[in-house]
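sry for the spam today, last one i promise. struct tokens for design, 128 residues
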């Protein structure tokens, strides 16, 4: 199951601390934006979602369908994924540049790669 369940969870804090220490200034959980993005850079019109691999069905080793109540989980997670898609479309069509950081990218051993990716995203060289 996901290690990211609510706000201020550990992987998210790691990213935030690193961003702050690197001189980036941001806003958190802006409620007036679709999907309440986790980290928002209003001046750059960019934002970051930090997604738990289980809840948002990432295709990685962290994601596995639970053994029990499969129908329930398929429906629940299916709805989350559809909602993510809708939010993403709403945001990009109103000019926001969006990035998703997955739990496994933060907790894995490739933090340098992730930091490089985030920096590129913030200076506008990020290619999805
Ligand atoms: Zn993942």
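last one done:
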């Amino acid at each position: 199951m996901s290690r990211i369940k609510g706000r201020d969870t550990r992987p998210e804090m790691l990213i935030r601390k690193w961003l702050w220490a690197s001189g980036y200034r941001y806003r958190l959980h802006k409620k007036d934006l679709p999907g309440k993005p986790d980290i928002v850079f209003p001046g750059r019109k960019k934002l970051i979602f930090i997604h738990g691999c289980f809840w948002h069905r990432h295709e990685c080793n962290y994601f596995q369908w639970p053994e029990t109540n499969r129908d329930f989980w398929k429906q629940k997670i299916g709805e989350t994924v559809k909602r993510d898609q809708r939010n993403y479309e709403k945001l990009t069509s109103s000019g926001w540049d969006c990035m998703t950081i997955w739990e496994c990218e933060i907790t894995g051993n490739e933090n340098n790669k992730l930091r490089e990716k985030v920096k590129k995203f913030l200076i506008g060289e990020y290619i999805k």
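Residues 56 and 81 are 6 Å apart (CA to CA). ok im logging off now
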